[in-house]
Amino acid sequence: MRLIQRIRRSQLYRSVIRHPAPRDRRNRAAVVLTNLVLHLHAVAISRHAVRIGYTWCLGGIAFFLMLVETITGVLLMFYYRPTTVHAYRDMLELRDVVSFGMVREIHRWGAHAMVIIVMLHMLRVFLTGSYRPPREFNWVVGVMLLLLTLFLAFTGYLLPWDQLSMWAVTVGTNMAGAAPFIGHEGPGSAWITAGGEPLITSQSDVRYLLLGASSVTEETLNRFYVLHCIALPLAVFALCALHFWRVRKDGGISGPL
Amino acid sequence: MIDESPLLWPQSASAVPAWLYAVLAVFNAVAALRTGKTWRQDPSAGRFPLALISFGLYAAVAAAALGLFFFTGKLPGLPESFKRFVDSSLNAATVCVLWWGFLFAFLLLRRRLVSPNSRPHVLNLPALAFLVALSDGQFSGLVWQPDNFAIVLIVAATLFHLYFALSSAVRNDDRIARGLPPLEGEKREREKVLVWPDLVYIELIAMIVVMTGLLIWSLALPAPLEAPADPLHTPNPAKAPWYFVGLQELLVYFDPWLAGVVIPGILALGLIALPYLDPSPEGSGYYSLASRPRVAAAFLFGFFGLWLLLIVIGVFFRGPNWAFYGPFESRDVPKIESTRARPLSTWLHAPGAASERPSEEGRRSGTVAILLREWPGPAFLLAYFLILPHALQRGPTRAFRRRVGAVRYHAAMFLFLFMLLIPIKMLLREACAVNYILYLPEWGWNI
To answer: Which of chain A's residues have a Cβ under 8 Å away from the Cβ of B226?
Structure first.
């Protein structure tokens, strides 16, 4: 015990953690106020808001899973190369050669869990009426986060480059080719012409924009890889910051008026 | 190397239901003990709680199944004739109608279902039915396909969550009817507690529980990896990722421009618009149904009755050629489904005639001829989207129309009627053999 107290009094410890142990009211408030992660929370919240049967921790679990996905995703990126030559072989190596060859499982099932939890979180927020004013804008941010989660899962689905992933993404992106006006198989696209020539073809429609080609090829793999690893996670974290900020600014976790 | 002990896992897949029976037995035993403890501690409680006996009985049933497996290596199963009956009586339409009936029965009978005496049955019977069905090789193969397990999980989690949310809603609605505040609004509940330790410890425990579950899931089911991608060999069926299979299933009923683009687009738009169409801050911040019965019914129908149902049908009931297969039916036998369904206009013009596409002649005869041929489609859509909301506002939706004003009313009604168009088209196809309300192959705008 004396050793612990000496550590607590040392310059090194006090440079990192600036307040005494959170054993009394004052220091319990201080730890939440001065800690970067904990200060997402208010110092004190009403008792009903910490009841498990009210929130079921769903929002927090969704964010926790996002962190799990980020960490395991970085580990997977050490071994994975998004080219048609390497992608599938790297999958086999991740399974058979790499130590603790379970990271891909955690990443994949974590992604499925995240989709499930985000949907349930939306259900919970709906059933408690928490989308109503003054929280309506935060509900909109939440819907955006749900869509981003689905798109993140979808772009990641292609990366193993096996039959399952390639054809699932083919089926999914074929729908984009049927978009009215802007998809080459969609209704109305034949009406958009320039000098008699059709403007919307399989080389210029919205599916081409998504795939980087007119079918699922290496260009698609690269495009989805960049979206999956950089663009979409950045967007998710930015919107999460806004989402959490607005929870606080709109009056904390919802409760009766 | 296969281990000889049947209870070791994952070497023996048939041991999985046995483990689940064990979990069920423990869960029921704990629930029985907790019920008994609350009863003993509460002096005002009257008769001996029936729930205690029910939980105890379910614990005994699950333990008996486990014992049977331990001594004989077999688990309780279903007779073949019953499986064949289920397979032959199910099709897309019956699954939908059963599911919707179940959802509305659940909502209407909620007061009865959440009472302490029925709680053991509501929680146990679905679990037991699932476990008994797992004894079938075909069914368990379908469930344990690695990517499919997520759908089992989401259905179970949503049911579980919905059940407890409805319990809270019934409790609050009863309190409000008696003139009390909802439980979340009680004075004691409104008092502040410190986030450290009251919330951070819950968060820590939640993280540990989630991570443990995720690790068990990852140890038990390997991530799927099939043959290398090959653009020349299309698998049959080629399925989208499970969260988009619902949209793929819609392709049976709608053309791709609707199923893949317009319907999901309007779905996202409707979700975003929800708080602006129903803007009253009353009744927020606690579980309740009585304070928002209509919007809740609409939302739950969309979430449960369409989004989740279509995923379940697409994942579990669709086999090669996207044909419908029963839960115990082998996917190795290829089926080709034929349908009598044809456009509404052809039914009206030539009842009984089997004209599938308009003739070349009809195609050349210009816009007027097409519109004359297709008059029932626009007439139906006009009546549905324009006249119906106007007619309704004189009756059932009058109060809503007064409260939110014309713009919000019509936007909300459009979104709601658009959502209802999905079950309407499903039933039109399955029950009335109509596949298109509006059929314009010349231009591609089929609805």
So the answer is: 162-164
